[in-house]
Amino acid sequence: MRSAATAKAQQKAGQRHRGDAKRHRARPAKLARPAPLRSSAVTILDPGTGQVVYQKNARAIMPIASLTKLMTALVVLEADQDMNETLTVSKLDIDRLKFSSSRLRPGTRLTRAAMLHIALMSSENRAASALGRYYPGGTGQLVRAMNAKARALGMVRTHYVEPTGLSSANVSSPEDLAKLVLAVQKYDRIRQYSTDRQFTITQGRQHTVYHNTNRLTANPSWKIHLQKTGYISEAGRCMVLYATVRGRPMVMVFLNSQGKFSRAADANAVRAWLVGGVPAHAARAKRPASLAGAASPGHD
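The chain above was modelled as a monomer; its predicted structure follows.
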């Protein structure tokens, strides 16, 4: 016969085992996360549920470069101006801040729609500047409208000083930019213009072909409905996407990514993580050239 002491010890051991098993069942499994991303600040949002599925320094305020042009486009469209009106590029549109290159010559005449097209697709700074000059009240009034719209959208960490993104004083956060992406994706023109592969304009007797600054738009495995890239030295490589991943709409914001292909690599890593089929670190390591979000010299 077992002694009373032995039986009591076995009873306590059994209770501990059942307690450990119960705690193990109750503990939720930890969700995997993407491999470390090279972007300094990131927000990945499911707009269907409002759930932030991943974030990194989501409220950090930093320069946003040509992501600015999304707000420029939104304010221009909300002003309900004639998109077929002809605008003329002026010497006033030449970049005197960064001295960036442009293929859009002073004196070139394009419709407002064409200016918006190359500003969003190819990040043409002179086009964005012209849109500002032709805004009711001029560029100053456009910038005031941009800041007013930011406040209306709840973008509390955002401020604009000009419409191109060349100034490092144009700042925002990933959290705020996710709100902007949700607002602008409602506009067919912004979705179409930002994701078109190429667009041709006429300057005098010459045809100038513009291409998308974001090569992810050429990748058939991506379903991108809206995008914008940006780059100045103070902002690093920046990118926003509104894309469908495995049937699920997702907003992706990447700020201050270091390295020519880093923002595209980060986006591919996040997409692989969401799909669940490829380890994020493996997706980042490959960095296929065809998927790189590199820009042409002088652009984003």
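The chain has one domain: 33-291.
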